[in-house]
Amino acid sequence: MNIHREEYTKTLELNIDIQPYFLDHQFENKPVLPAVEAMQILSRAVFPYLENKDINCIANAEFPRFLPIPFNEKTIPVFINIDLHKKGSIKAVLITQTLSKKMKIRRMKEHVSLEFLTCDNNIDKSFQIHPIKEKYFEIPAQRIYKELIPFGPAYHNIHDKLKITENQAEAFVYAGDFASDYSPAGSPFPLDAAFHAACVWGQRYAGIVAFPIGLDKRHIIKPAQPGNTYTARIKPVSQKSSLLIFDIEIYNLQDNLCESTSGVKMKDVSSGRLRPPDWVCM
């Protein structure tokens, strides 16, 4: 991925089109923009600044706060700060502006921050996550979305069932039917469904309902295509208090690695208001 070498900062103003299916992604019964959708928006924003039009690595991503999706609106006005660095990376930050009704003070809120880098597509297979071989606990996808992750149907993209052990989770994940949501990073839905699987792991083995708050590196080898089914393998790396860290790999049905995401950070952002049901906990 060759990036323009000049170094400068640019701020874009744009309106995010609110797709009807965005309303299916909710936190405490209020629609919020998924982290994967925010990555899509930023990848489209930086695309004109790439010389060879290739995005294959997202790094140092942080999701510090949700971006609420308003009802009865068609767009969300946002700012995107883009920093082009001579070293060859691009940093992008998604920001909204709010106006205090009492003090009439404008406040800027940062929702997503990440970098676009160049990754080597040569994969060291010794570090790949292998299929589950040990005895596993099985949860039907329908029960996951009814009792554990109550999102609307657009985000019901774990298919069939989730296999889960103390050391791993694995599921078929669907790339959605929304071609309009495709970006240079591919479809967002397989990774989002993998986040769901990690959330279920956290409910069973850590006793918390965890949401993604960041990741170290997302390496996109073969962008996921809308309409396709993939296999997601999720490996818990560490658990420190309420912070869970996972590695995630997404394979096509020929078992070729398509996407590898390391250092996925997830935690309870509800201050304990959301609790897993007793039946899923160890």
List keywords for this structure.
single chain, 282 residues, PKS_mFAS_DH, mainly beta, 14 strands, 2 domains, globular, Thiol Ester Dehydrase, Chain A, 40% strand, PKS_dehydratase_sf, PKS_DH_C, Dehydratase domain-containing protein, twelve-stranded antiparallel sheet
Summarize the structure.
By secondary structure, the chain is mainly beta.
Task: Draw up the topology in text.
Elements: E1 8-17, E2 26-27, E3 30-31, H1 35-46, E4 57-62, E5 75-84, E6 90-99, E7 106-116, E8 137-140, H2 141-148, E9 158-165, E10 168-174, H3 189-205, E11 211-220, E12 229-240, E13 243-251, E14 257-267
Antiparallel strand pairs: 1-5, 2-3, 4-7, 4-11, 5-6, 6-7, 8-9, 9-10, 10-12, 11-14, 12-13, 13-14
Outline type: globular
Number of strands: 14
Distance between the termini: 45 Å
Rounded radius of gyration (Å): 19 Å
Please write the CATH class name of the largest domain: Alpha Beta
Task: State the helicity in percent bands.
Answer: 10-25%
Biggest sheet statistics = 12 strands, antiparallel
Write down the secondary-structure element order: EEEHEEEEEHEEHEEEE
Task: Tell me the strand order in the biggest sheet.
Answer: 1-5-6-7-4-11-14-13-12-10-9-8
Region (C-terminal hotdog fold): 135-275
Protein name: Dehydratase domain-containing protein
InterPro entries: HotDog_dom_sf (IPR029069), PKS_dehydratase_sf (IPR042104), PKS_DH_C (IPR049551), PKS_mFAS_DH (IPR049900)
Organism: Desulfonema limicola
